[in-house]
Structures are given as C-alpha cells and as structure tokens.
Amino acid sequence: MKISVIGMGYAGVVTAACLSELGHEVIGYDIDSQRINSLNSFNPQIFEPGLDKLIEKNCNLKRLTFQHIDDSDLNLGEISIITVGTPSDPNGSPNLEYIWKSVEWTTKHLKDNAVLLMRSTVQPGTGDLIESKFCEHQSINYISCPEFLREGEAVKDFFTPDRIIIGGNNSKAVEKVVQMHSGIDSPIIKTKIITAEMIKFASNAFLATKISFINEMAAFCEAWSADVDDVKDGLGLDHRIGKSFLNAGVGFGGSCVPKETRAFTSLASNYGFKSHLLSSVLEVNENQSQIPVRIIQKIFPDMNNVRVGILGMSFKPNTDDIRESPSIKIAQTLSSLGCQVSCFDPISNQKSAEKLGTSVKFETSINNLSQNKNVILLMTPWDSILNTDWEHIYDSMSEPKILFDGRNSLNPETIKNIGFNYVGVGRGISSSDLDSIII
Ligand code: UGA
C-alpha cells in the first residue's frame, strides 16, 4: 500500500518507520527541511530504542523516504496519515492550529476515494468537523485511528498493541485501514469517529487516574507507616484492578498524559460542567512533584545553599523527552528556594540545560554529580542510574547524605545498610523518622 505520513514528530516518525517495516511504501512529510535531511541520513533526532535501525533498513530497501512538504513531486498514496502536534493553549484546551493546516494541505492533494487518517490526538468532535468541512465534497474518507505508543517502547507498542481503534463512517475505508495493519495481531474495535477520539482521551485520563490514586494511597501509607509497594501488589493481584500503572512516585509527566487530562477538564467547562475527578487527579499530581521540596524543607530549616543533586531529567527512562518532567519542575523550585542544584541525565542533559538556563549546574557523570551533595533525588530510574555504585556515591556525599527515591526503584534495606538516610514515596518513612536528621 502507498501511504503518506504528515508531520515527522515523534508519533509520525515511529508510524512511518513501522508501516514501512510491515511492507508498505511510505513517504514521511514535514515542513522542516533540516529534519527531513536528518531523517534521510537515518537520524530520527529523538531517542527511541530501535527506531534508527528501522529507518535505516527501510530507507535502504526504498520502502521509506522523507520529503519536504513543498516538494513538487507529491504522492500521498491511498492513505494519508496526520501525525502533527497538538500543543495546549494556556487555558489547557488543545490548540489544533497544525491539525487544520495539515488537513487543508493534505485534502488538497489527495486523490478521490483516498483515506485521510487522523493519528494525532484531537478532542472528540474534531473528526466529524473535518469530515464535513474538508472530506465529504471531495470523496475523501475520514478515519480516526489514534496512536497508543509509549515513548521509549513505541516500536514494540506499534507491532504488539493491546488494541487498534478504527473510527469511520465508510466501511470500505475502515476495511482499508484494517488491511494496513495486516501482520499485526491485535483486537480491532470499529466504531464511530467521535467514539474513537473519546477512547484515546479516556485511556490517558484513566492512566493518570490510576497513578494519582496510588499516589494518594502512598500519602496514607506514609502517615501510617505502611508500604505502598506491598499495597500495590495486594491490589494488583485482583484481576479487576491489575498491577500496571500503580507505581507510586513523583507523578506523571510527558507530552500526553498530563496534557490530555488537562484538556478534559478545560473541555468540560466549555460544556458547562466540572470534571471533579480529573481536576483532583491533576491536583494530586502537582502536589506529588513537590514532595522533595517538603522533605528538604523539613530537614533544612534554612534551604540556602543546601547542595542537591538530581539524577534523571527525562519524564521517564529510555526517552530524551523532558516535557512536563517532574525533574524540571523540582529543579526550578529548589533553585528558586536557594538550594545549589546540580543535575545529570544519561541522554537529556543538553535539552534540560536549554530549558533551565544557568540557575542549575549540569554534570557529565553520576559520580561527579554526587560530590559533596547533602541530598540526592533519584527522579528517573534509568538502568544506568539504578546500577550505579551506591557505596561510592555515599562516600562522595556530605552529611546528612539523604537519598530520595522518587520512583521507589531501589531496595530500601540495601541502601539503608550502606548508611544513606533513605526516603521513598509511601514506603513507611513517616515524618517522625526525618525528625532525627533535622539539621
Ligand atoms: C502515554 C500512554 O501511556 C500511551 O498509551 C499513549 O499513546 C501516549 O501517552 C500518547 O498519548 O501518545 P507516554 O507519554 O510515553 O505514553 O508515557 P507513560 O508511559 O504513559 O508514562 C507517563 C508518566 O507516568 C511518566 O512520567 C511515568 O513515569 C508516570 N508513571 C507511569 C507513574 O508515575 N506510575 C506508573 O505506574 C506508570
């Protein structure tokens, strides 16, 4: 099948590369010629395990090419997939400027009976609007087929999805999109366009809810000296609940989960109601990222010049994405409160430095970061961070040698035996434990 993908951001590049791996002939389009050149040299400019190899292989097989949108030699094929970004407006509602521009451009160049497939996350109702405004009079068939790709695992998620959602009004077009996925073993749900859009939003909102739920339970555990990880296991073994997305920590970040949860709350107000549940989910999350501040404030009544090292800047491991990363928020807050903040990330030091400016320092290794620090905040559990030599880190730090484990990724007993003052999230270290180390 000949397929075009419009917008070579994160979802676009992964989608284009994976579709070509399925054997389709794919052209990826973008307005950024530097990005196109880089993709044609097999460099996706994003850190995503396995993606560069997939691009190289399929470009060499001539199944995958990248073109600037202004190229005269356009060939959008039978299916054109929109994967442009949908940033948020300041009030949290989605900004669809790029969607409108790309849909206008694509429908102008698509042939009759072709499929316009929306893979970007758009608010429910957008597809019906696009269909009536741009597609019906041109015999173009509109399909909503949202992506469910996790950063860091996107290639795997593409080939082994939990489900494929296809929303559309034309059964032939729906079947064409089913065919596009042949080779992938997955349940397929065929539904209305608006329902497909809703499924995508609801999925991310539910994941956000699970995380804020366990984080609230972690606060109870903290108060009662219970252990949230055991609570998670006990809860998760109930198959109606399940274990995944029940890891307590410093909260959810990234470019999608927070943005789409916020979008729901702002869209609800457009329809005259309040999303009480999701507003609370966001409130819990905001609070969660500030836990290290409360701990440091409690131990050091004077925060000026407390030396803090932050380990991990991306919003989760295996990605260089720092959008809405709790590490960025915490670095900003702590440095504004007078702490001396240093950071280290295996991949996103440069991006983080561009974002944070000169208010914080960046180190090129974990060992450099730990030198003379009073407090280490483990925020992103990269393998290389978890497998570091913690005894060496301990020796290089200054008193009171606090290790805050923001993702409950370390074994508390092992770490405490080294000598650290270990604090996790909801792991039963109540504030009275901290009293003994107040400076
Ligand atoms: C998310 C969804 O998981 C994908 O299904 C979806 O397709 C994608 O958004 C999207 O809309 O494009 P992603 O942004 O890569 O994927 O991030 P997640 O893996 O969902 O993690 C989000 C945040 O939640 C991270 O900061 C992570 O550390 C945090 N998290 C995750 C927890 O705090 N606890 C958990 O148990 C799980």
Descriptive account of the structure:
By secondary structure, the protein is of the alpha/beta class. The chain folds into three domains: 2-191, NAD(P)-binding Rossmann-like Domain (Rossmann fold); 200-286, N-(1-d-carboxylethyl)-l-norvaline Dehydrogenase, domain 2 (Orthogonal Bundle); 289-435, NAD(P)-binding Rossmann-like Domain (Rossmann fold), CATH 3.40.50.720. It is built from 19 helices and 14 strands. The strands form two sheets. An eight-stranded mixed β-sheet has the order 3-2-1-4-5-6-7-8, with helices on both faces. The protein has a six-stranded parallel β-sheet with strand order 11-10-9-12-13-14, sandwiched between helices. Helix 13 (326-336) links the parallel strand 9 (307-311) and strand 10. Helix 1 packs across helix 3 (51-60), helix 8 (193-224) crosses helix 10 (257-270) and helix 8 crosses helix 11. It is globular and about 75 Å long. The model has no long low-confidence stretch (mean pLDDT 94). Uridine-5'-diphosphate-glucuronic acid binds at residues 121, 147-151, 204, 207, 211, 245-247, 249, 251-254, 256-257, 315-316.
